[in-house]
Design a protein that fits this description.
mainly alpha; globular; 14 helices
Length: 288
């Protein structure tokens, strides 16, 4: 099999698994914080085993890199915590659509790192996203769970976009499993003091679900995603990643029987279209 095709298969499997991650916000009967702590601990152990088996490096090159790893770990910890909280409040479909505002948020964050300015088309994309989010909101009050979930989902998108920019600019010299090892463990250490249900009180079913989300839906897709980038561009990966909300909505309908409303589908189409367009624009920019 050609390396390019193999990488494409890796990428599609990774995005499919990423799409299924949101299900565990509903399947695991724990708080978003507890899910995040146990997920990161399990994923970190799985990644350590993987790196050991592959005889890959674990240590970082400099003290500066450890500080960047600390920043990335804190950021990804907040991202995952708000990600699961948003899903629990708003539902899988709406929560994932809110999270997928991150490509547009990225466009407006990058100028702070590169000194460039957003273009007119980027502002148009932002307006399309705002319209899409407006269609998702049932009530303009944060007292409504869905509205609060959307707000938290957008906050999660902000931290995800920030983490991606910092990673690309300051930490891209390291492989995917190695970087995720530090991020998962730092996130776990940061949040573990606030765990509501201690390990011995977590029942067998929840442990099985946590192991599944930690190994199969966290460590595995991140490793596959990193492997795919050896032969595919980051922009190609970004385009294919736009399928993630579609996979998540399909899984939620199939397994949890969550049926999205017409306004959710229209709002989702607007948000995902803007995300796809921004990612496609980046692809064209790098090819020129």
């Amino acid at each position: 099999m050609q390396a390019h095709k193999q990488s494409l298969i890796y990428l599609h499997i990774a995005v499919l698994l990423f799409g299924g991650t949101a299900l565990f916000a509903k399947l695991v009967s724990l708080s978003a914080l507890d899910i995040t702590v146990y997920r990161t601990a399990i994923a970190g152990c799985a990644l350590l085993i993987l790196l050991t088996i592959q005889h890959k490096a674990i240590k970082l090159h400099s003290r500066r890199d450890y500080l960047i790893a600390l920043l990335l770990g804190v950021t990804v910890g907040i991202h995952w915590l708000t990600y699961f909280a948003g899903m629990q409040l708003a539902g899988i479909a709406v929560g994932m659509i809110a999270f997928f505002t991150y490509p547009v948020i990225t466009v407006f964050l990058e100028p702070f790192f590169h000194g460039s300015k957003p273009q007119l088309k980027d502002i148009f994309s932002a307006l399309v996203v705002m319209l899409g989010i407006y269609l998702l909101i049932p009530d303009a009050s944060l007292g409504n769970d869905v509205t609060l979930g959307i707000a938290i989902g957008i906050l999660s998108a902000f931290f995800f976009a920030f983490r991606n920019i910092v990673h690309k600019r300051y930490f891209s010299q390291y492989g995917g499993p190695q970087t995720m090892l530090y991020q998962t463990w730092i996130a776990c250490i940061m949040l573990c003091a606030f765990v509501e249900v201690p390990p011995l009180q977590v029942d067998t079913i929840n442990w099985l679900l946590l192991i599944t989300v930690g190994v199969i839906f966290t460590a595995a897709p991140h490793s596959l995603f990193a492997a795919s980038l050896k032969n595919l561009s980051a922009s190609t990966a970004g385009l294919i990643s736009c399928l993630q909300p579609l996979y998540g909505t399909f899984f939620a309908f199939l397994i949890l029987h969550e049926q999205p409303s017409i306004s959710t589908l229209i709002g989702g189409a607007l948000v995902i279209s803007a995300a796809f367009y921004e990612t496609w624009s980046v692809t064209r920019r790098y090819k020129q």
